[in-house]
Amino acid sequence: MTHLIELQKVFFQYKGNHALQNINLKIQEGDSIALIGPNGSGKSTLLKIINGIVFPDKGQVVFDGQEINAKTLSNTNFSKQFHKRVGFVFQNSDAQLFCPNVYEEIAFGPRQMQMEENEVNNRVSDCLKMLLIEHLKHREPYHLSEGEKRKVALAAVLSLNPEVLTLDEPMDGLDPRTKRFLKELLTQINKAGKTIICATHDFEYIQGLFKKVIVISEDHTVIREGNLEEIISDEPFLLKHNLK
Ligand SMILES: Nc1ncnc2c1ncn2[C@@H]1O[C@H](COP(=O)(O)OP(=O)(O)O)[C@@H](O)[C@H]1O
Ligand SMILES: [Mg+2]
Questions:
Q1: What does the DSSP 8-state code read for residue 104?
Q2: Do the Cβ atoms of 45 and 61 come closer than 8 Å?
Q3: Which domain holds residue 171?
Q4: Which of 5, 66, 77, 224 falls between 20 and 30 A from 53, CA-CA?
């Protein structure tokens, strides 16, 4: 079977600090995966590796049969196609929002891809509707609430209609209603066939959304992979690895 994303013996460190150690992963199209692990285990780094934001010191990242590294991404066409197919919602929305208003923010990606202005407009309208943020379209992203910013950041990624959606702690800092809304939306997006990979430690909200769990330990390596229900009902395992 071919896998959409494959990591082979990936190691990564930040100036001598280990962040990922010997990561081997196979992710299939349509998977919905919760990436869990204690603080500092390497979840954010793993998402950065999958998105080609940082590159492994050792090992390989393969997306749809093609290696993702500094060399392949230096090809503008390849890089554009890759970033269109794989979207990343950062943990900190402020790091992602830089346009003068919400409309421009959501239009940015499609414009970068040289889409016709008509198409850009349609995509922005669809995403504003999907996230229930039409009333915010003229607002300045910087001055929105945390929850509103998160929705705008997600809309800005969804406007490219990526096949893979990666999210870093998307429920962090959101109120219960916004969390429920986001959970429902991500469920729909996955049902529509998109692959979702989400770093999270919010157990309450991962049930019913993700089918698989990948657990990273304090040693920065994958210690368990499998069915969500099975893993989150294994109390001794969760306690032992500082996950509960
Ligand atoms: N920019 C950075 N510079 C140096 N060390 C970093 C940096 N980002 C993360 N680290 C370190 O790498 C390890 C993994 O971090 P991270 O991927 O952010 O973990 P998680 O998202 O699971 O909390 C941690 O030990 C962290 O301190
Ligand atoms: Mg993190």
A1: H
A2: no
A3: 5-240
A4: 224
Q: For tokens 């209609």, name the residue.
A: 161
Angle (nearest 5°) at CA 75 between 44 and 27 = 40
Residue nearest to atom 11 of ligand 1 (CA): 19
What CATH number corresponds to the domain at position 219? 3.40.50.300
Residue recorded with tokens 């008509």 = 118
Burial class of residue 186, CB neighbours in 10 A (0-12, 13-18, 19+): buried
Spacing of C-alpha 238 from chain mean position: 23
Residue 79 burial (10 A CB sphere; 0-12, 13-18, 19+): middle
Per-10-residue mean pLDDT of the chain, 244 residues long, equals 90 97 97 95 98 98 97 96 97 95 98 96 98 97 95 97 97 92 96 96 82 96 95 93 89
Residue 87 token pair: 């979207």
pTM here? 0.96
The whole-number pLDDT of residue 80 equals 95
Q: Whose CA is nearest to atom 24 of ligand 1?
A: 40
Closest C-alpha among 198, 180, 193, 190 to residue 50: 198
Amino acid, res. 39: N
The count of C-alpha atoms lying within 13 angstroms of the C-alpha of 141, restricted to the half-sphere facing its C-beta, is 23
Tally the domains of the chain.
1
Q: Residue 208 has what pLDDT? A: 86
3-class secondary-structure state, position 242 = coil
Query: Of all protein residues, whose CA lies closest to atom 1 belonging to ligand 1?
Result: 14
> One-letter amino acid identity for 152?
V
| Residue with the two structure tokens 């509103």 | 148
DSSP 92: S
